## 1
Amino acid sequence: MSRLAVRNLDNEEIGDIELDDDVFGVPVRRDILARVVNWQLAKRRAGTHKTKGISEIQGTTKKPYKQKGTGRARQGSLRSPQFRGGARIFGPVVRSHEFNLQKKVRRLGLKSALSAKLEEGKLVVIDAAHIEEAKTKALRIRLEALSWDSVLIIDGPAVDQNFARAARNLPRVEVLPQQGANVYDILRCDTLVLTREAVQHLEARLK
């Protein structure tokens, strides 16, 4: 078990918490992290790229000139790819870029990402992500006092609405519920901040 101090948003230490080594102390597998990140980014791709095949090109179906006797190469259609405005052979088509990744690999990737942040000393546990008023300026002042520039804050199953509203205008601050915790966002941020509730749910979910 790893023990970590628990702070509040005023940067005051108010206790500590034990982190389960089965979730926060696994070896960091860079290969697994790469696989999970590639899987996440592939799911995000729109796959709407498209070029026209010969059946989709508008134009005449008439043979351009007779087969023999012209001294030129034989041609069957002006819609062929060798002509300007013609089709493209083996061009991209609308498709999904998603692929399957086993649940155990995705789970191991999330454990590895959490363990990497703890190993780097960039994992912070706070008591709660809650503010009285949804004021971006007030939250920005608090985050600057904590030296949190690029930060991902993961709360319990429900995010405090005032906190979420105050954070959404801050460009390098992201707030997620615990079920939205993912490898790509964890690795992309500099500091990972978990609430006590988030730690409990993540440990229950990943053990």
## 2
Amino acid sequence: MGILAALWLPGLVWAGEGMQAADTSWILTSTALVLFMTLPGLALFYGGLVRSRNVLSILLQCFAIAGLASILWLIIGYSIAFGEGGDYFGDLSRVMFSGVREETLFGGLPESVFGLFQMTFAIITPALIIGGFAERMKFSAVLLFSSIWLLLVYAPVTHWVWGGGWLQQMGLLDFAGGTVVHITAGVAALVAALVLGPRKGFPGTPMMPHNMTMTIAGAGMLWVGWFGFNGGSALAANGDAAMAMLVTHLSAAAGAMTWMFYEWIKYGKPTALGTVTGMVAGLGTITPASGFVGPAAALLIGIAAGIVCFNATLFIKRVVKIDDSLDVFPVHGVGGILGTFLAGIFASTELGLFSGQGFLNESISSIGEQLGVQIIGIVAVAVFTVIMTWAILKLVGLMTGGLRVSAEDESQGLDIASHEERGYVNL
């Protein structure tokens, strides 16, 4: 399956040509950028969005997930995702990175670099989910859920899409994680929000971000780090990586400006929170399409992300009144679905100025056929994630005596209740 994955991934050269130094340097850099997205990027972004009594708990959850996910990826996660296996699950040939040595190549890269790069994706995906149940889940439950979910949801879906599995064989277009990262994380966050129920006082009590300065700093780090997320997914220092970075930036800019002006027109004032949320929506939506579309299409994708994700956020919070605390599903889940669908349109070479690089599966000859594959991928990943996430949450609840902290602890704040520490000290 390693050879099949090599055929799929753009820009990858054959192992017989030896290690490619420029490509290796770029993926080393991209790996650092993607880790930077979680620590400190996502941690600060989420940390500023919660109330002050929970800021430390969110920072620690991001930090602890980074450590846990890394160890689990080493032990078995990488093997499930990229080991030789069937259509749905990798084998155990890469347990503990077995066979990965200094000279072992994955295409033109040292396999150690490829495995590490993929590890950073495995870190950020469960870290994204915590925004759905922020301020109310036990720390023990967070760690146990994140660990099991990584191995039973994230790693198998990665195998389906990037490790030689059935969706890859069908020709699903997902360059950097629309299905693997954003749909799985967004849907899992929505399921978790439903299973745990709303925070005390929701929706009647305003629950405003306590530190927008922290959130904007984290958002800036996410924007920069996303160049490694999408550009690095070319697995080469070439034109694919350059185009992926260009369209990533344009979609982020378009998403931010669309959300800002939409909010300005609708409510009379633009907000910093709306602008950075639109930026993240633009980034998440372009992710699956980033290696397949051109700049003009990226502009449209970013605008679509700003409009669709804005309205999805209002719908989740105000219409169906689900307390997805930090809007993980309407931004990442909806953005991942939208981007995966639009990739099936704008990858076409028949759209003039809005044309992309074409479809990967030679048996697919039209936008309609490609959209059929994209829809199958979206539905399959979403349904699988719903079922597995619900089951894992129920299991973890039994193992930890309940997923949720007590009402007293929630009122006190998780910083003190769970960690006996404060994010801020009153001088």
